């Protein structure tokens, strides 16, 4: 396969960098079979009684939990998804001492499944679920096999995913960690995100370096500000990178 335009430059920058941060979105997981929200086949282009952004909002969760969980199990849980080449290469770069952090908008836990340790999950994770009354913890498997509105076997309270819904604030500690990592990075690689969802997209402004790389199939609002733009599926691109011991 012919290398993508700009690929050699990407490899050179990775070789000379030792404090890389990767910032990714839904496009990182599409090659694992998880649809993104805004593509032609994404959630926003499928027909439900309510728009997806309405269903996965805090106010909708409060007043129609049956419908919320029907949609949540059907369209947001992918227990059989496996890490793809992008997840695996990022974990490899971390083990090699080159990549310091992954900042992700995804809730699927695939970065950790691939072996990444320092992951800032801006929007939470489907793998963490808590009773709203007693705070007992429940994993993804429990949620997949629950029915209707999941309730706590311990106290009977409603179990809520540790996922940031529309109208909810991002976790302050996670945001601070992500900002600090990006501000200290000597290379920022952004992949698989349209960079239109705030406040997450605003994190890019904290990068102070001169190796801002955008890996995305479609143009983004930040393309003109980037030092290198490669239009490619991120998994296919990452698979071509050399091995890092």
Describe this structure in words.
With 245 residues, the chain is an alpha/beta fold. It has nine helices and nine strands. The strands form two sheets. It has a six-stranded parallel beta sheet, sandwiched between helices. Strands 5-4-6 form a three-stranded antiparallel beta sheet. The longest helix is centred in the C-terminal third of the chain and has 13 residues, at 172-184.
Q: How large is the radius of gyration?
A: 18 Å
CATH architecture of the domain at 1-34 and 83-123 and 170-245: 3-Layer(aba) Sandwich
Q: Estimate percent helicity.
A: 25-40%
Largest sheet: 6 strands, parallel
Fraction in beta strands:
15-25%
Distance between the termini: 23 Å
CATH topology call of the domain at 1-34 and 83-123 and 170-245: Rossmann fold
H/E element order = HEHHHHEHEEEHEHEEEH
Form type: elongated
Number of helices: 9
Structural class of the helices, strands and pairings?
alpha/beta
Care to count the β-strands? 9
Nearest-integer average pLDDT: 92
**Low-confidence parts, pLDDT < 50 over ≥5 residues?**
none
Write a concise keyword list for the protein shown above:
three-stranded antiparallel β-sheet; elongated; 245 residues; Rossmann fold; alpha/beta
Strands, helices and their partners?
Layout: H1 7-16, E1 20-24, H2 52-55, H3 58-63, H4 65-75, H5 85-95, E2 99-104, H6 110-114, E3 119-121, E4 124-131, E5 137-138, H7 140-144, E6 159-163, H8 172-184, E7 187-191, E8 212-215, E9 228-230, H9 234-239
Parallel strand pairs: 1-2, 1-7, 2-3, 7-8, 8-9
Antiparallel strand pairs: 4-5, 4-6
């Amino acid at each position: 396969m012919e290398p993508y335009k700009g690929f050699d430059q990407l490899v050179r920058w990775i070789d000379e960098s030792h404090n890389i941060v990767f910032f990714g979105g839904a496009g990182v997981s599409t090659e694992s079979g998880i649809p993104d929200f805004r593509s032609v086949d994404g959630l926003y282009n499928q027909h439900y009684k309510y728009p997806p952004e309405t269903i996965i909002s805090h106010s909708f969760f409060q007043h129609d939990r049956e419908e919320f969980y029907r949609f949540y199990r059907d369209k947001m849980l992918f227990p059989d998804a496996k890490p793809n080449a992008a997840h695996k290469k990022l974990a490899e770069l971390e083990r090699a001492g080159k990549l310091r952090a992954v900042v992700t908008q995804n809730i699927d836990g695939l970065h950790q499944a691939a072996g990444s340790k320092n992951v800032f999950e801006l929007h939470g994770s489907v793998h963490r679920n808590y009773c709203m009354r007693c705070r007992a913890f429940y994993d993804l498997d429990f949620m997949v096999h629950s029915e209707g509105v999941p309730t706590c076997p311990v106290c009977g309270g409603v179990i809520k995913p540790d996922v940031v819904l529309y109208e909810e604030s991002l976790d302050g500690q996670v945001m601070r960690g992500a900002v600090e990592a990006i501000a200290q990075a000597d290379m920022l690689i952004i992949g698989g995100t349209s960079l239109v969802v705030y406040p997450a997209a605003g994190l890019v402004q904290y990068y102070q370096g001169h190796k801002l790389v955008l890996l995305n199939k479609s143009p983004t609002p930040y393309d003109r500000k980037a030092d290198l733009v490669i239009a490619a599926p991120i998994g296919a691109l990452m698979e071509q990178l050399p091995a890092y011991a």
